[in-house]
Amino acid sequence: MMTKLRYLGKALRMAAAPALAATLLAACDSGSSSSTPAAGSTVKPGSADQLALGRYLTKAADCAACHTTATGAPFAGGVELASPFGKFYGSNITPDKQHGIGKWNADQFYKALHDGVTPDRHLYPAMPYTSYRSMTRADSDAIYAYLMQQKPVAVPSKQADLKFPYNMRFGMMFWNVPFLKNSLSDASAGQSPAWLRGQYLSNALGHCAECHSPRGVFGQLDLSKPLAGAALGRVAAPNITPAGLAAVGWTAADLQTFFATGIAPQGSAYGEMFPVVHLSTQYLSKDDLAAITTYLLGDKPLPPEPVKAISADAVELDAGKRLYTAVCAGCHGFQGEGKPHVAVAMKGNSTVRNTDPHNLIVAMLDGIEAQKFPGTESLQDMPGFAGQLSDKELAQLSNFLRATWGGQAAEVTPDRIKSMRLTTAH
Ligand code: HEC
Ligand code: HEC
Ligand code: HEC
């Protein structure tokens, strides 16, 4: 599991075959809870219900992504968030009185989530209070109650290591004035109870926009293009607006499978999306996953688009096909159909169908580390081919995949591949 995440975009960087998907969904059915804990306003403070709710909300808001390292104690902090402004670290939020938030009361906790202000400092927006601002007071209290039940850990928080002038914390007061908004904008239209619940789960808790919405030069979310996709780190966050999702073939059912299991007919979760599924969405109730999906697609979803037929240069396609057969087909199938328990399908894969070949090229160059998906599925790693294949070969492969299974123009040039090779090992 990676501990270095990328969030605030290039500007703040945070680090299947249908049969396979069906197996996973079946595995998940038994694993994940089928009901959502009672809503915040109906639980009694200090009750077991409130703790259960707090535990669930802490997962839904994915606090662990930035506050628990792969090897550290829960919520003891230390996760590194890399950015062009410098490095941020998730703080110790265990109830330790000296190093954690043990001396805080529920009001102070709410103020940190809602305003980004703690008893002694202004937080940087690497802590996504721009999203958590919409969280209800009752839900904040439940998370507070749950965190206060955790084991106190006496580890000091690592201080952010930022370049001038970003290291001037008081500057955040000025950042918050134009950029801290009471609500985020919506990419879809809806008003059903499921859509409203999905809006709350996606914005106030799951903070999807923090990665999927583009950012401006000050690291602020661009509210005019909600969920339209963002450069992020090595792997870009795709467009997940209703039009963006329909264009690459997502249906409501497949999205729910993706959030519950990390694998759908459109592909697997990788890069920064893998921890989101691994630590957060897999634990959500079926109703809540359906709500998130309704929010993403809108109350009147667009029909998923079939893969378009594309004409492309026959010589280029033939060269790409030969490379695919020699190098990739062993795992992804000769017809791009994928292999259960080995690798996802390339035919209709959302990464292959993406207008921008960025993530396709990154997957081929860098590979994807071995990942353990919810339930029983774990896929071996996908090897990187940066060392074996030339710029020309990788361009031919990209073009073959895009034109044959992606419905996308075969316009990837060797120069594009060259520009995306990592200059330093990662
Ligand atoms: C995207 C990463 C990220 C996520 C997700 C995240 N945090 Fe944070 N959090 C941070 C960072 C980074 C800091 C330190 C910010 C700074 O140095 O100004 C922080 C600071 C805090 C602080 C201030 C601690 C102190 O001692 O000042 C609290 C409280 C906190 N987070 C609670 C939470 C809770 C609760 C959640 C889930 C609801 C959460 N965070 C989710 C990144 C994150
Ligand atoms: C040893 C088996 C193996 C080989 C060989 C292989 N892959 Fe993969 N590939 C995988 C696995 C496994 C995944 C999913 C990894 C995950 O998400 O954990 C994957 C994922 C991908 C993805 C990301 C899409 C998604 O939804 O996960 C792309 C694109 C891709 N492979 C393209 C290729 C291409 C092109 C080649 C040949 C150059 C290739 N792969 C060779 C195993 C392989
Ligand atoms: C830490 C950054 C991050 C967060 C937070 C995040 N995502 Fe993602 N997401 C990504 C990246 C990077 C990808 C591309 C890799 C992949 O397809 O798995 C992605 C892929 C996806 C995809 C697949 C899109 C496609 O066409 O292939 C969907 C759907 C998605 N995210 C939905 C969500 C939702 C809903 C949330 C909030 C609950 C969310 N994401 C939160 C980074 C993030």
Automatic annotation (TrEMBL):
Keywords noted in UniProt: Heme, Iron, Metal-binding, Oxidoreductase, Signal
EC number: 1.1.-.-
Cofactor remark: Binds 3 heme c groups covalently per subunit.
GO terms, molecular function: electron transfer activity; heme binding; iron ion binding; oxidoreductase activity, acting on CH-OH group of donors
CC terms in the record's Gene Ontology section: membrane
Signal sequence bounds: 1-21
Pfam families registered for this protein in UniProt: Cytochrom_C
Binding site for heme c 3: 328, 331-332
Origin: domain of life: Bacteria
Broad enzyme group: oxidoreductase
Residue ranges annotated for the Cytochrome c domain, each copy included: 49-151, 185-300, 315-405
Cofactor: heme c
Amino-acid positions noted as binding heme c 1 in the UniProt annotation, renumbered to this chain: 63, 66-67
Amino acids binding heme c 2: 208, 211-212
UniProt xrefs under InterPro entries: Cyt_c-like_dom, Cyt_c-like_dom_sf, Cytochrome_c-type_DH, Membr-bd_ADH_cyt_c
Identification of the protein by name: Diheme cytochrome c-553
